[in-house]
C-alpha cells in the first residue's frame, strides 16, 4: 500500500500523547500507593496533560490532510456501529476531553477525596478521572489498531499484533516523553517513567520483530490465475495490468524499491528501539529528550514500512513491474 504521510503523523503523534497521559496517571497512582506521602504538584500533571493535548491536537490536525473533503469530516463519525474508523473519530476527541479534565482538575487543585480505604489511603477526584482517562486511551489504541487489523484481505495487517504493536509503541514513546518531562521538572517519578519506558521499548521491539518475521512468511492465498480467471496452469505476466496510471496503480503501490524498504526496516529498528533504549539507560535529561526525538523519527519510518508491507490482493493483477 502507498503510505499517506498524514496518517503516519496522525498515528505517531496521538500514540505519544496517549502514552504520556497513561504515564502521568501511572505516576500519580505510584505516588498515592507507595510513596509514603511524597506527591507531585498539580502543576506537574497539568503541564504534562497540556503537552499530551498538544500532541493529540496535532494528530487530529494531521488527519484532515488525507480527507478528500475536510468540510464533511464530521460524517466519519456516523458509522460507529460498524466502522473502527468512526470509533477512532469519536475516541480521539474523547481522549482530548479527558486530558483537559484531568489536567484542569490538577491545575485547580480539585483533589477532594471520593472514597476512603481501611489502610488509610483514599481515592481522590483527580485519580478517579485519571483511571477513566487511561481507559479512554486504551480504547483509542484499540480503535486505531483495529482499523487495519480488521482488513482481512491484507494479511500483513490482519493480526492481533497490529493492535499490540500500535499500543506498545505508543506507550513506549509516551513514557520516554514523560521521563524527559519529569527529569526537566525534577520530579520523583523520573526513575519510574524511565524504567517503564525501557521495558516498553524492549517489548515493542520484540512485538514488531515478530510481525516482521510473520509477514515475511505469509504466502498469498490467491494466485494470478484466480485473479484474471484464466484456466491455464502456467501464466506469466509480461506487462502491468493497466496501460497507464490509474487509482489502482498509484494508491496500492508505495513506489520504493525492495532495497529501500529493507533499509528502512533496519533504520526504524535502530532509531525506534535500540538508540532510544541506550539513551534512556544513560539517564541524562538532555539525552531523554533526544531519545524521544530519535524514536519519533524511527516510528515514522516504522509506520511507513507498516503500510508498505501491506500487500493488497489487487496487486496480483496490477503488478508493479512490466
TrEMBL record:
Q: Does Iron appear among the keywords?
A: no
Which residues span the membrane?
Answer: 43-68, 89-108, 128-151, 163-183, 189-210, 264-297
Q: Which InterPro entries match?
A: DmsC
**Transmembrane is among the record's keywords:** yes
Highest taxon above the source species: Bacteria
GO terms for MF: oxidoreductase activity
Q: What keywords tag this UniProt record?
A: Membrane, Oxidoreductase, Transmembrane, Transmembrane helix
Q: What class of enzyme is it?
A: oxidoreductase
* Enzyme Commission designation: 1.8.5.3
Question: Which named protein is this?
Answer: Dimethyl sulfoxide reductase anchor subunit
Lineage here is: Bacteria, Pseudomonadati, Pseudomonadota, Alphaproteobacteria, Rhodospirillales
Amino acid at each position: 500500500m502507498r503510505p499517506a504521510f498524514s496518517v503516519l503523523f496522525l498515528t505517531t503523534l496521538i500514540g505519544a500523547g496517549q502514552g504520556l497521559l497513561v504515564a502521568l496517571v501511572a505516576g500519580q497512582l505510584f505516588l498515592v500507593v507507595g510513596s509514603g506521602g511524597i506527591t507531585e504538584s498539580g502543576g506537574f500533571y497539568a503541564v504534562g496533560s497540556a503537552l499530551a493535548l498538544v500532541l493529540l491536537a496535532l494528530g487530529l490536525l494531521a488527519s484532515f490532510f488525507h480527507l478528500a473533503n475536510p468540510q464533511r469530516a464530521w460524517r466519519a463519525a456516523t458509522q460507529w456501529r460498524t466502522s473502527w474508523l468512526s470509533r477512532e473519530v469519536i475516541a480521539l476527541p474523547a481522549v482530548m476531553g479527558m486530558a483537559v479534565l484531568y489536567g484542569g482538575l490538577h491545575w485547580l487543585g480539585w483533589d477532594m477525596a471520593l472514597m476512603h480505604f481501611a489502610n488509610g489511603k483514599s481515592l481522590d477526584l483527580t485519580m478517579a478521572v485519571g483511571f477513566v482517562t487511561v481507559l479512554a486511551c486504551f480504547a483509542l489504541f484499540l480503535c486505531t489498531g483495529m482499523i487495519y487489523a480488521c482488513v482481512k484481505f491484507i494479511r500483513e495487517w490482519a493480526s492481533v499484533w497490529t493492535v499490540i504493536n500500535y499500543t506498545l509503541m505508543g506507550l513506549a514513546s509516551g513514557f520516554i516523553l514523560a521521563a524527559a518531562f519529569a527529569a526537566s521538572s525534577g520530579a520523583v517519578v523520573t526513575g519510574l517513567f524511565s524504567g517503564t519506558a525501557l521495558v516498553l521499548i524492549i517489548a515493542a521491539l520484540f512485538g514488531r520483530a515478530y510481525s516482521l518475521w510473520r509477514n515475511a512468511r505469509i504466502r498469498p492465498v490467491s494466485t494470478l490465475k484466480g485473479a484474471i480467471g484464466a484456466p491455464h496452469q502456467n501464466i506469466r505476466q509480461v506487462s502491468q495490468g493497466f496501460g497507464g496510471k490509474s487509482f489502482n496503480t498509484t494508491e496500492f503501490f508505495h513506489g520504493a524499491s525492495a532495497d529501500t524498504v529493507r533499509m528502512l526496516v533496519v533504520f526504524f529498528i535502530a532509531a525506534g528501539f535500540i538508540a532510544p533504549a541506550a539513551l534512556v539507560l544513560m539517564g541524562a535529561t538532555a539525552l531523554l529528550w533526544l531519545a524521544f526525538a530519535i524514536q519519533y523519527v524511527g516510528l515514522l519510518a516504522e509506520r511507513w514500512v507498516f503500510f508498505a508491507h501491506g500487500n493488497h490482493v489487487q496487486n496480483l493483477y496490477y503488478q508493479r513491474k512490466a
